Amino acid sequence: MDKKILIVLGVIVYALTTFASYSFFSAQTSTKKVSYDVPTGGNTTDEDGAPKTEPCPLNGKLYSEAQKAKWESRRPLAIMVQNNVEARPQSGLSSADVVHEVVAEGGITRFLTLFYCENPEIVGSVRSARMYFIQLLQGFGENPLYAHVGGANTPGPADALGEIKDLGWYQNNDLDQFAVPFPNYWRDYDRLPGRATEHTVYTNTEKLWAFAAKNRDLTNVDKDGVEWTEDWEPWTFKGDAKVEERGTVAKINFGFWDGSLGSDYVVEWKYDKITNTYLRSNGGKPHIDFNTDKQLSSRNVVVAFADESTANDGYEHGQHLLYDVIGKGDAIVFQNGFAIEGTWKKPKEVDMMRFYDADGAEIELVAGKIWIEILPEGNKVDF
Q1: Which segments of 123-196 are extended strands (E)?
Q2: pLDDT tens digits, 220-258
Q3: Does a cis peptide bond (omega within 30 degrees of 0) precede residue 125?
Q4: Could you say which of 33, 51, 138, 331 is the most buried, measured as most Cβ atoms within 10 Å of its Cβ?
Q5: How far apart are the C-alpha atoms of 323 and 318, rounded to whole Å?
């Protein structure tokens, strides 16, 4: 009997020491506390007065320990948001950690918005998937969540829904509105009256994270216990430059397509040297978030040039587009009032798009919001 007791006690001690060891090493590999330089007028504490010491893994922005505890239980969530004139002002763009903007069709751009460290109550309007957005999203860890309303599905190189199935995302980390029931998505015809029906779908990040956890066994780990950060390497970040060391590039202007719709999608980012932020205008007007009634802003504006082509897949309502976002191309990184001309590289789908200066050194991004503007090769950027 005594021998059995000793064996049981040994097993218990082993389990406890194993758990303690795991906890210790997990703590060592977690994101370290960082104290970046805070721009003039910035807040060093959150709304509850807790110090902001915890960098968001996606963009380096600082949050409190309580906020970090929330994001550590989930994985990145990408939501397709429409930029049709009828869909403006959109909801939730100001809360995204990272935003990619690319033309979806007919010169009309769309946003791949990534949420992880913030959770806005409303995001939208939500639209359909495209192949190149999927490829961009693949760089954000193991099985990121992807929220959209259907997608390009004509057989051929632009078949986004076919790609989702081929990747094994279908009924896993894919959150297509057609497979995810109300109230995770809903239509709101009164939010912006007079719009076409396709611009009325909205969602909530907390609902989607909860749905993924309950129905897909996807939290910060999958059903096999694999962390979403497995083999994922984030960008590197730095604090704001001191005011006297900031540059003088005051405005960034560019368009996506020429033609009758072009003026509605011309973008201007105006640099505010004091706050070290870029303020966005779209179609000649300040671009406002419906949730906050404030103009969209970013710490970093990255312009990446990629080859644009048509899929020629017989789509009867126009042309599905392709953007070659795998490989490399020219890029301009705007930060701290400077324009850094260089290149982008994304060797494989599962790699992040990274940015390099003229000497080939990877560019550190300024901790804070990141906007990546993908333009057709040959487009002009004025700054």
Answers
A1: 123-124, 145-148, 174-176, 185-187
A2: 999 999 999 999 999 999 999 999 999 999 999 999 998
A3: yes
A4: 331
A5: 16
Q: Residue 300 and residue 333: Cα distance in Å, rounded?
A: 7
Torsion of CA 256, 261, 262, 267, to 10 degrees: -80
- Burial of residue 190, with CB atoms counted within 10 A of its CB: 0-12 exposed, 13-18 middle, 19 or more buried: exposed
CA nearest neighbour of 80 among 100, 106, 51, 97: 100
SS3 for 24? helix
Instruction: Give a yes or no: residue 43 inside a domain.
Output: no
Count of Cβ atoms closer than 10 Å to residue 16 Cβ: 10
Strands 308-310 and 321-323: antiparallel
- Structure-block tokens of residue 96: 């995204």
Q: Which residue matches tokens 């080859």?
A: 307
Per residue in 43-70, pLDDT (tens digit) is: 777 777 888 889 999 999 999 999 999 9
- The reply to whether the predicted model has a pTM over 0.70 is yes
Q: Which amino acid is at 18?
A: T
Per-residue burial over 154-188, b = 16 or more CB atoms within 10 Å of its CB, e = otherwise = bebebbbbbbbeebebeebbbbbbeebeeebbeee
Between strands 277-282 and 354-357, the pairing is: unpaired
Which range marks the domain in which residue 325 is found?
73-375
- What's the number of CA atoms in the CB half-sphere (13 Å) around residue 234? 19
- Whether the pLDDT of residue 267 is over 50: the answer is yes
Residue at 85 is within a domain: yes
**Tell me, what's the pLDDT at 19?**
38
Q: Per 3-state DSSP, what percentage of the chain is helix, strand, and coil (rounded to 5)?
A: 20, 30, 50
**Which phi-psi region, left, alpha or beta, contains residue 318 (left: φ > 0; alpha: ψ -120 to 50)?**
left
> What CATH number did the domain enclosing 242 receive?
3.50.90.10
| 345 residue type, one letter | K
Residue 342 lies in a domain: yes
Q: Does residue 26 lie in a domain region?
A: no
How far apart (Å, rounded) are the C-alpha atoms in residues 159 and 313? 9
Percent of the chain with pLDDT over 90: 79
pLDDT digits (tens, 9 = 90+) for 165-203: 999 999 899 999 999 999 999 999 988 888 888 899 999
User: Which amino acid does the sequence have at 286?
Assistant: P
Dihedral angle computed from the Cα positions of residues 225, 227, 230 and 233, in that order, rounded to the nearest 10 degrees? 180
Residue 379, CB-side half-sphere exposure with 13 Å CA sphere: 25
Mean pLDDT for 135-151 is 97
